[in-house]
Every structure is written in structure tokens, then in C-alpha cells.
Amino acid sequence: xxxxxxxxxxxxxxxxxxxxxYVAGLGGVIALNSLVTQQRMSHENGITCRGELHVVDDPQFxxxxxxxxxxxxxxxxxxxxxxxxxxxxxxxxxxxxxxxxARGESPLDLLMNTGDVPLFWNVRNFWxxxxxxxxxxxxxxxxxxxxxxxxxxxxxxxxxxxPESFAxxxxxxxxxxxxxxxxxxxxxxxxxxxxADFDGVESGEPNEQDRSHPWLQNPLADxxxxxxxxKDEMTTRLNVEHRPVGYVLQVQLRERPSSFEPEWxxxxxxxxxxxxxxHDVAVVTLTEALDHAxxxxxxxxxSNHPDSLPVPLGRSIDDPHSLNDIRLAGKWARRARLYSYxxxxxxxxxxxxxxxxxxxxxxxxAEPPGS
Length: 371
Ligand code: HEM
Fold this sequence. Notes:
- The protein is an alpha+beta fold.
- The chain has a single domain, classed as Beta Barrel (Catalase HpII,  Chain A, domain 1), CATH 2.40.180.10.
- The chain has helices at 2-37, 123-135, 142-147, 149-158, 208-212, 229-240, 292-297, 322-329, 331-344, and strands at 45-55, 72-81, 91-98, 109-113, 159-160, 171-172, 177-180, 186-195, 245-255, 279-289.
- Strands 1, 2, 3, 4, 5, 6, 7, 8, 9 and 10 form a ten-stranded antiparallel beta sheet that branches.
- α1 packs parallel to α8 and α1 runs parallel beside α9 (331-344).
- The longest helix has 36 residues, at 2-37.
- Residues 30, 34, 40-43, 46, 78, 80, 94, 96, 111-113, 118, 126, 174-175, 267, 299-300, 323, 326-327, 330, 333-334, 337 line the site of protoporphyrin IX containing FE.
């Protein structure tokens, strides 16, 4: 018995050290990449907007000291594409919400992507995904997708093709965060940002063909829209037509068992809405799109949160919470990117044309569409 306890203790120490090593190694590589390329490791292609956020007057979730009824925040939302510098590619889209109209510090940041499950759900398979990404994406992801059918599912449900507007998609936190109510009970929370008038159908959901090979991300051969069409739509709507964009921030909550970590904590398992309903948290209204420089200087960080909304951490590279450990280490990549702006100047906006030298086709396309 004593031997078993000692063995378990040693094993847990080794697992934690392994996680620390992965976080340091991967975090270092990602930071170096941002320093050299001056780009976000992910979601470089994006637009930042400002507006206001109102916590609902009659919350249907357990009383919480941060989400008090009627509380008002200024806010920013950055919409982006998880990879590639072309709005017409088949990519995961994002909506990151900052509870302050500020570049960085805020009481709470929530980073959300389209799709209810991601392409990776712990540090081990994030590393597998990264190998395909560093290899060049496209077919280089196939070994990971073949080895992990769940990664293929994540990619298939998350990508969006040619959406009409960022305002017509739903963004999910996917991983679990902590939610400690006034009652002192620790619950797990998942958030989503949905269009105010969401009817259950998102713009840009992939058709059968795209779903059969979501790793082929090039624009369609007959694409006529430019590389920035989706960001342009948002800017025109907010800054020229003065038509605000409305979202509802919602939360799903499940009580954390006291003695074990259930399987459903993993972002590989979406929570059935009919069993764990979404509750409205706040109404978000965006009124202005910010210029390129302000957008690039805006960053989001999981460490922006109150104590009552804790970020659970992992115990091994197979622990679903380990994604939070490595995302927190992403602050070095962000710092490296901002430092590179200071030293070498900020890179300009993405050109409209696909003939510009920074446009990449994977797999190669002889004639870039709509160029
Ligand atoms: C399901 C898990 C994840 C979700 C939902 C997620 C979501 C996002 C979103 C929405 C953004 C864009 C933020 C913006 O607009 O500036 C972002 C950026 C970023 N993410 Fe993730 N992410 C996840 C996992 C990871 C992992 C595992 C890493 C590993 C280090 C990571 C590192 C980063 C970095 C470095 C940035 C860019 C930071 C910057 O330069 O400003 N993310 N993520």
C-alpha cells in the first residue's frame, strides 16, 4: 500500500514536470516565431471593434459577484481567422471578448472560436497538431487527422467558408473555465457569443464537399471577393452605415464533482444544450471598428479574469486543462510580437490582392482566384 502511494506520488511529479517541459518548449518556439514573423501565432488576420456590454437584468444562472445584474462594461471584440491571411479561405473564425475598451488589461478576456469542439483537447494532441502546422498545413495535417479522428471532427465542425459577416457566426470557448458563485460552489463554465437574433443557422457552415476534406483551405477557384472582404463588411457596417452589431454572451454551467475529474471536462465533449442549457449572461453591442494599428495592439490573455472565474490548470500533458497552461504561456508570444513592433515597426494591413507576395496557396494554385 505504502509502495503504491509512493509510486503514484512519483508518477504525478514526473507528469507535472513533463507538462512544464512541454509548456516551456512549445511556448518558447511560439514566442520565437512571433518575434521573427511579427505575427500572432494564430488568428493574425483580424479586425478589432469597440462597444458596450450589459449584464442581463434577470440572470437565470447562480448568483455571481462579477456578473451582477445590469452591470455595464465598455468592451472590445476582435474577430479573426485562425490561420491564413485571406478571409475567403476555409478557416476557423474567432470572436474574442474583452471586458474593457483597452488594448490589454481588463477584468475578463474570453477567447472563442467557431465550432463546439476544437482540433486538439490537451497538450499532447496540440503538439501533434503543431507538427502539421509547422510542416505547412494542408496535407501536412493528415498524419495528425488520421491518428486522431476527434481532431478531424474538430476541424470539420469549426471551419467556415465565405461567411456573409462575422456578425452571423457563433463563437465558443470550447475549454472549461471555473465559475464560483456567491453560494461558494465551484462549477465548470463554457461560454459562447451568439448573434442577438440567432436562428440556429450560422453563415459559412461548410458544405458536404468542404466537410469531406476540411484541410484543403484555399479559396474556391471562382472566388471573386478580395482577401479582406469580411473585415471590410464589418468596417462598412459599423463606421459608414452606423448599424451596430449585437451579440448575446451565454454560459453553460455544470457542478464540478469533488472527488474526480469527469470525462466531460474535455473540450472533445460538447455539452448537450437540452441537458445543460445556455443562460444569457450579457448583451454585447459593437458600434465602431478600430484602425489597423489599434487592432494589432489589442491583445487577449486568459490571465485577465477575476478570482471568482478561475482558470483551471493541468496535471499532465493528457489533462484537458493543460491547454490552459500552454495558452497562459502564450503571453511570451504576444510580448515578442509587440516588442518586434517597437524595434522594427508594425507590419501594414493585409493587401487585397492574391498576387501580393505574402499570399500563400496550400496546396499551390496556378491561378490565384479573384486576384
Ligand atoms: C481550444 C483552445 C483554444 C482556443 C479556443 C483559442 C482561441 C484563440 C483566439 C480566439 C485567439 C485570437 C485572439 C485575438 O484575436 O487576438 C487566439 C490567439 C492565440 N492563441 Fe489560442 N486558442 C486555443 C488554444 C491555444 C493553444 C493550445 C495555444 C498554445 C500556445 C494558443 C496560443 C495562442 C497565441 C500565442 C495567440 C496569439 C497571441 C497574440 O500574439 O496576441 N492557443 N487563441
